[in-house]
Amino acid sequence: MKKILVANRGEIALRIMRTIRRMGIRSVAVYSEADRNSPHVFFADEAVCLGPAPSTQSYLNADKIIAFANELGVDGIHPGYGFLSENAEFAKLTEKAGIIFIGPGPDAMRIMGSKLAAKECVKKYGIPMVPGTDKAIEDIDVAKKIAAEIGYPVLIKASAGGGGKGMRIVEKATDLEEQMQRAVSEARSSFGDGSVFIEKYISSPRHIEIQVLADNYGNTIHLFERECSIQRRHQKVVEESPSSVLTPELRKKMGEAAVMVATSCNYRSTGTVEFLLDDKLNFYFLEMNTRLQVEHPVTEMITGIDLVEEQIKIARGEKLGFTQDDLSVNGHSLELRVYAEDPSNDFLPSTGTLTKYIRPQGEGIRVDDGYEEGMTIPVYYDPMIAKLVTHGKDRASAIQKMKEAIRNYKIEGVITTLSFGLFVLEHDAFLSGKFDTQFIEKHYIPSKLAPTQKQNAELAAIIALKYWLDKQKEIKPVEATPTNWTIRLTENN
Ligand code: MV4
């Protein structure tokens, strides 16, 4: 491969292009009108404008992206995450145009894009799954019977859903019919597919995912876990590797299960197998994400492997250069996602210009971002500004580095979730490792946030004003000094 087009924007486009350059390959950026002056555009060897800011007219325009790729003699397309990354049709169109799609094959993407097809596919491998149905439920009486068997509460899930979309918890039998109808119509309108299924609802689970890597020659390995339980409304906030709760035995078992999931669909490239872990450390396969994930850096930090480099090597037909036994967990890594959102105001997006933007630096600190000082955060896309990643010899040292890095990250002009990150990192539940996906609901009180720079500045202004007003009261009015002047009052005044 001599030239790769990166069909994405922001931090991930930049991060992918850095590896492309290091491998001696040329890079092509695509951008929307809103991203004209973005770092990923300047970094690339070539760049083409896709169109107006809305994603549907730019980063989601598959035909236009492939047409540009052809025109510029591109031989590989990397989709990043989001946008077209899990679109099997796009992968197919890319390959049809004679360009390599840097990711899994369209068939694996299609199977894993449907939760029911995924369950069906992995069934014969004996992967543990949450008790429930593995077929779409069409009949309410069948649904009632199954729900009664597995026991309430149950969860209705949309087969085409993902990342928590289209899920409904049902507490008791009398609610089932209504919730089923709602779930089906919601699934139909959101995903164009009304198939739903039922699972036992696991309360307060942990979210543990396993990174896998597979070449075209049947070599499939795992790169251990990422603990992603600290999330807010299905948006991850803090990720880490390794997880505090996995024993070496459980890590091995879950890793082997993840490899089997990948094998079941003939997977190639990087992928992530998601599991739920209950309070008794039982794990259940949930779904597989067929892309490079946002939080992939923590895995890179503890394994020393560049996942994008591996994706490119696999895409150009190379065999994996290492085996499972060559891999081990080295130290501990944390990632904090920094969003342009106001954590003291229900995480409302905070738009504006980065009037000050200074990154933390130091050994074991990595910042993956796609902005520079003076840039405006566009409202059209995800509000993530950066991923702050640390690596230390153990968990305590990775946490210490993260706290330091947060304090040395100077962002002004927009409100960010940095203060919220500090709240999480200082919380006893996080420090002890005893937390689950309900961490934020259970522990977060906005008033406990350390004040931001802006709040401190406002406070300082109020104190100064009070000081000035008090001083004014102390100043005695000057006594009238007698003069010889006479004020002549004329009739006119
Ligand atoms: C569940 C569950 C409890 N029981 N399935 C949410 C995202 C999607 N990938 C699956 N999800 C869940 N599935 C059963 N049977 C709880 C969740 C869940 C969750 C999972 C991972 C991370 C955060 C979560 C937050 C709420 C619910």
Note down, in words, how this protein is organized.
- The protein is globular.
- It starts with a strand and ends in a 19-residue tail after the last helix.
- The strands form five sheets. Strands 13-12-9-10-11-14-19-18 form an eight-stranded antiparallel sheet, with helices on both faces.
- 35% of the residues lie in helices and 23% in strands.
- It has helices at residues 10-22, 39-43, 62-71, 88-96, 106-113, 115-122, 140-150, 173-191, 248-264, 296-303, 307-315, 395-408, 418-426, 428-432, 439-443, 453-474, and strands spanning 3-6, 26-32, 46-51, 76-78, 100-101, 154-158, 168-170, 196-200, 206-214, 220-232, 235-241, 269-277, 283-289, 332-339, 341-342, 348-349, 356-358, 365-369, 384-392, 410-412.
- The chain is an alpha+beta fold and 493 residues long.
- It is built from 16 helices and 20 strands.
- The longest helix has 22 residues, at 453-474.
- Ligand MV4 binds at residues 130, 155, 163-164, 199-202, 205, 207, 231, 234, 274, 276, 286-287, 437.
Which percent range describes the beta-strand content? 15-25%
Tally of separate domains = 3
Radius of gyration from the CA trace? 27 Å
Ligand names: ligand MV4
- Derived from helix and strand composition plus strand pairing, the structural class reads alpha+beta
The CATH architecture designation of the largest domain is 2-Layer Sandwich
